[in-house]
Design goal:
Elements lengths: L4 E5 L6 E5 L2 E9 L3 H14 L5 E8 L5 E5 L9 H10 L5 E8 L6 H18 L3 E5 L1 E9 L3 H10 L3 E6 L3 E9 L6 H5 L6 E4 L1
Antiparallel strand pairs: 1-7, 2-3, 3-6, 4-5, 4-6, 8-10, 8-11, 9-10
Helix pairs in contact: 2-3
């Protein structure tokens, strides 16, 4: 069976604090679904920590061909964003954003010190979060006449399909989902009900 699960965060994690030679690194981890959510969170953190020096972050979004971005926000190249992204990979997460906000403490840490500090801060932020495993789901639309409703509902119940949305009228339309590994069972399950049209979304 193909791998049809992924790990992400249940909800935003606790704020964490890592200190190194006077510099303070505040770590945050959030579940995100798109770049719009990333922008909103970054704006909120910038207004919360308006006197900080750097707001470095990395995100990974998507389940099958995930995209990612790592941002050093003025720190030396690859000393902040990539160490943060490395922790997202190490925890095997997706649909997640990790931000580390740095207040400069007066002593330069050097590139090696920065890499360690951002890595540790990202690790703390993820350790302070609740990780969950979710399924990658395939969605289908069922279209049928009202008289077939009870048969359709019986198949949905027997196959433990998730009901997402339903529109009832003279003709009915139901959106269902099932974890990807079981998706190929859906169309055959409705074949005996030949008036029911099943379309993958």
């Amino acid at each position: 069976m193909q791998n049809d699960t992924y790990k992400t965060l249940d909800h935003p994690g606790e704020e964490t604090l890592f200190k190194e030679k006077g510099s303070k690194f505040y770590g945050y981890a959030y579940p995100v679904k798109n770049e719009e959510e990333v922008k909103v969170i970054l704006e909120e953190l910038k207004s919360k920590h308006h006197s900080a020096r750097h707001w470095c972050y990395a995100w990974q979004i998507g389940t099958e061909n995930p995209g990612f971005r790592a941002n050093d926000d003025g720190e030396p190249s690859n000393s902040a964003g990539m160490p943060i992204y490395g922790q997202i990979q190490s925890f095997e997460l997706t649909n997640v954003l990790v931000v580390v906000v740095r207040y400069f403490g007066g002593t330069k840490l050097g590139v090696g010190g920065l890499i360690q500090a951002y890595k540790a801060s990202a690790q703390f932020a993820l350790e302070a979060s609740t990780l969950v495993e979710k399924t990658i789901d395939q969605h289908f639309i069922l279209e049928f006449e009202y008289k077939d409703m009870s048969h359709v509902m019986r198949v949905i119940k027997e196959k433990q399909l998730n009901l997402i949305e339903q529109e009832m009228g003279l003709t009915c339309k139901i959106e269902i989902s099932v974890r990807k590994g079981l998706a190929e069972q859906v169309i055959p399950a409705f074949e005996p009900l030949y008036q029911v049209k099943v379309s993958p979304v």
